[in-house]
Amino acid sequence: MTITTISAFEQLKQQLSEQFLQQLQSHIDVSKTAIFCSFGEQTQRCQVWNSSCSDFSDTQQQLFDFLEQQFSSTEVLSTFVKIDVAYNIQVEQWQHIEQTLKNQFHNNHYRKGMSFDADFKLCFLEQELYGKAIIRALSYSTPNFIDEKNLNSSILKKYPNRHNAINIAEIRQVWTFDTYAVMYEQGQLIPLQSQFTENGVRCLLEPKKQHLKKMIETNAQFLFQQIQQDGKFNYGFFPAYDREIRSYNTVRHCTSVYALIETLAIHPYSLEIEKIRSAIDYALQHFYIEKQAGLAYMLDGTELGQLDEIKLGANAAAILMLTKYQEITADDYYLEDAQALANGILSMINEAGETTHVLHYPSYDIKEKFRIIYYDGEAALA
Asked: Which of 252, 275, 267, 280 is nearest to 216 (CA)?
């Protein structure tokens, strides 16, 4: 619900003050904190404003002044508004930060915000560090690091009056912090989890079963919207750079369709069956190949975008998609395709029960005996 009236705006300020900011003062050091406001629309990345004063009431007033300025300029407040308040502020030696990042097992996973000065004039929330690729790695299995170019371009965009670039080699210390946060939605403040892997995740305000059903239905609607007229998905975007993902993956196409079909058990989207059919047909038209009658495989691509691989997991995902469609709709239109793909899986299993994960196409020679551990289980289930 977008705020479009003065009364609604005043109600938001009252909610923030009474339900969030006042309650925080007994939990945090109010003499040493910062407030962040993330705001924006569905069609673009949120911007982030922040302020810090020695007196918490002054910082709170600056937040309200900022929100009022945003509202008065267009008489509409952004659809999405999230407020973060920093706490547990710690000064960290830069060498320790670099070592911590290098020891992370996955890309980007650093569960704190970071300020490059004590007064929070140059600082980023945890989500900004990820979303702007300030913390990144060259590949999935290599150590994380602070990308100096991305850091400085992010500073220039967020703080246009800042002219001096940061030289990573000259950094001696930074200030890390956790946050308490709320999201404003539908006239209420939704509290978000703080710290560790749950940081930024919504706290449940409704019964879990009701919440899970809503999640399934809204995610299904999102997936339906990504199916184009020809049945192909809008595959996605790299969040850090907002660039469209150009590659396409057969396994993910089929598992996405499978997930959509499963939602029909909860809500019979009768008008969406044709969309599901179009996505199934797209997969069979573009990835399905028969080596001979009754023996088929699903082709998949490498990073170069060429359909030159046959993956055990792709055959399995396609079978699960087709059989789930038949189970839910009682339509056996795709039964022979599923059986041919099952024979394809059997052809990749030897007498001892050992699987081969990847074949070259069109030679059908073995490319990789093993690639991903879940292929075997997926093939057995299919």
From this structure: 267
3-state secondary structure 37-57: EEEECCCCCCEEEEECCCCHH
> Could you tell me which residues come within 8 angstroms of residue 151 by beta carbon, excluding any fewer than 6 positions away?
134, 166, 168
Residue 20 is given by DSSP the state I
Distance CA 286, CA 328 (A): 24
Calculate mean pLDDT across residues 39-56.
Answer: 90
Which of helix, strand or coil describes residue 305?
A: coil
pLDDT digits (tens, 9 = 90+) for 214-245: 999 999 999 999 999 999 999 888 878 778 88
Does the pLDDT at position 361 exceed 70? yes
Query: Any idea how long the chain is?
Result: 382
The answer to whether the CB of 177 falls within 8 A of the CB of 89 is: yes
Residue 305, by phi and psi: left (phi above 0), alpha (psi -120 to 50) or beta?
Answer: left
CA gap 363, 272 in Å, rounded? 38
Distance CA 344, CA 311 (A): 10
Three-state secondary structure call for residue 205: coil
DSSP state of 337: H
Cα separation, 341 vs 382, in Å, equals 10
How far does the chain reach from its first CA to its final CA, in angstroms? Answer: 44
- In CATH, the architecture of 209-381 is Alpha/alpha barrel (1.50)
The structure tokens 């009658």 sit at 293
pTM: 0.84
Query: 34-43, 106-115, 351-360: which has the minimum mean pLDDT?
Result: 106-115
Q: Collapsing DSSP states into helix, strand and coil, what is residue 68? A: helix
Cross-strand bridge partners of residue 184: 81, 189
Helix axes of 335-346 and 312-329: crossing angle, nearest 10 degrees: 150
Per-residue pLDDT averaged across 97-121, rounded?
A: 88
Cβ of 249: how many Cβ atoms within 10 Å?
17
The domain locations on the chain are 6-203, 209-381
Phi/psi-derived region of residue 196, left when phi > 0, alpha when psi is between -120 and 50, beta in every other case = left
Q: For residues 131 and 87, give the distance between their C-alpha atoms in angstroms, rounded to a whole number.
A: 21
* Least confidently predicted of 92-101, 266-275, 363-372: 266-275
